[in-house]
Amino acid sequence: MSIRISDEVRQAIAEGKPVVALETTIVAHGMPEPTNIETALAVEGILRDGGAIPASVGLIEGDIVCGLSEAELDRLAHDQHVVKAQERDFGRAIRNRLSGATTVGATLLVAARCGIEVHVTGGIGGVAPEVGMNLDISADLPAIARSPLITIAAGTKAFMDTAATLEAMETLGVPVGVWQADEFPWFYSTSSGLKVEWRVESAQEIAEIFRAERDLRPGAGMFLGVPLLPPDALPAAQTRAAIDTALRRMREQGITGKAATPFLLSTIFEETGGASLTANVALIKNNARVGAQVAVAVAQSRLAI
Questions:
Q1: ω into residue 34 within 30 of 0, thus cis?
Q2: Sign of the CA dihedral with 245 first, then 250, 163, and 213 last
Q3: Which of 46, 128, 262, 288 has the smallest count of CB within 10 Å of its CB?
Q4: CA–CA separation, 201 vs 82, rounded Å?
Q5: Is it the case that residue 14 has pLDDT exceeding 90?
Q6: What pLDDT score does 305 carry?
Q7: Measuring CA to CA, which residue among 101, 118, 87, 106 is closest to residue 13?
Q8: What is the mean pLDDT of the chain?
Q9: Residue 223: phi, psi to the nearest 5?
Q10: What are the distances in angstroms from CA 278 to CA 228, 243, 265, 272?
Q11: Which position among 44, 87, 157, 271 bears the catalytic label?
Q12: Domain total for the chain?
């Protein structure tokens, strides 16, 4: 698989500097204009301020790009023909010269090929609430398990079955830690109420454990959940009410597959009077702040070997 790596990202990787991969579905399909591009650029700025180099991943006319330029990010944010690209879509997108925003799984594939070890996103896909009827389990989960990176997110997207997702990650062998908290985060809200075994107190701690994991299981990944800070979070009851309404409308309208997540995000936005978008922007920025710390610590741990 041929990947076009920006000069900045290529040099940073070669010199062992901290690099953080960023998925781009949040740019093309996760937020309305102009919040999408404003947030993407702000996240890159937060990473730089924290000492890490951002590497946004996407498809530009069939080229897989690691380290999108500002102009390329802007194109993904505004072009109505941008596809949502999972791993399985790469071959078709390359052949048909498509432009696309990469999902968590697709981003991890590219980042691993490039030698990047930290990935930041808003929230991952997980086990859907009605998995017993449709076997809807996000491709993000096996991708996290088999990609040698730390994926950092505010838990699963709020409308997933969080408990089932944690069980699935355990089955897949994914170590799951939570940043300075005892309960798994719940995307728009600070806590899902689900306790985890591993409370991560510092970036150095997870970097050292990640390095040990790489020695034992060189092809395996890890997950770090970062709770949204309370001042920016929605009350759990508000999140639950909006999700219940969004899921009911999705079932009534028969929406499935790739169209489900954008529909649910849009409906939750409407039901919360826009508060969900404010929380979404806050959580990805918070994830980036933590991600920069982790990337710096991971780079330092690599040098210490």
A1: yes
A2: negative
A3: 262
A4: 39
A5: yes
A6: 62
A7: 118
A8: 95
A9: -130, 135
A10: 12, 16, 12, 10
A11: 157
A12: 1
Residue 16: CB atoms within 10 Å: 12
Mean pLDDT in residue range 131-150? 91
Residue 23 bears catalytic tag: yes
Task: Place 132 in a pLDDT band, splitting at 50, 70 and 90.
Answer: low
Q: Record the tokens describing residue 233, joined without a space.
A: 């979070």
Pick the catalytic residue: 17, 23, 61, 87?
23
Least confident of 76-80, 103-107, 244-248, 257-261: 257-261
Q: What are phi and psi of 100, to 5 degrees?
A: -150, 155
Percent helix, percent strand, percent coil in the chain, to nearest 5: 50, 15, 30
Position 201 scores a pLDDT of 98
Residue located via tokens 């180099």: 53
Contacts of 37 (CB under 8 A, 6+ apart): 27, 73, 74, 77, 78
Q: Report the sign of the C-alpha dihedral through residues 245, 249, 32, 257, in that order.
A: positive
CA distance 52 to 179: 19
Neighbours of 107 (CB within 10 A): 32
Evaluated on CA atoms 104, 107, 112, 113, the torsion sign reads positive
Burial 82-106 (b: 16+ CB within 10 A, else e): bbbbbbebbeebbeeebbbbbbbbb
| Structural domain range at position 237 | 3-303
How close are the terminal C-alpha atoms of the chain, in Å?
Answer: 30
pTM: predicted TM-score of the whole model, two decimal places? 0.95
The two structure tokens encoding residue 76? 């993904």
- Domain containing residue 108: CATH number: 3.40.1790.10
Is 11 in contact with 56 (CB distance < 8 Å)?
no
